[in-house]
Design a protein that fits this description.
The chain is mainly α and 133 residues long. It has one domain. Helix content is 48%, strand content 6%. The chain has five helices and two strands. A hairpin with a 2-residue loop joins β1 and β2. α3 crosses α4.
Amino acid sequence: MVFSRKREIIEGITMGGEWVARERKAYVFLNNNFIPYPFENGIYVLPPEDRARYGLSLIKALIDYRDVKPANFKEWILRTFGEEVAKDYLIPYNEKIWKRPLDKISADWVYIPGRLPLPSLEDIVKSVAGIPT
């Protein structure tokens, strides 16, 4: 399995052989709900009170931390997605994946274009309103 958006990379790996492209469909399972990935765009499937809680968390982070450079990956998660999304989803998930304290991981790699999806205010507001994005 190869994850790349660059055709020349895929062709180099397959050495001109056949390959099958698939559209990614991923979900986050949280509180007995399958939430379409990325999480911030998929919260429209949640009950209104959860949409509001996560939406406020995301919007508050966008406003409060837009000009603050985080010291580590954990701070980046908190400052990009807010307390609620961080504690319920991103911190536990990333601790499981990375198998190390997130405050010991640099945040520098998250700024590589296309590496991680980032929430836009427009998508957050639509998702909180129950509109798929």
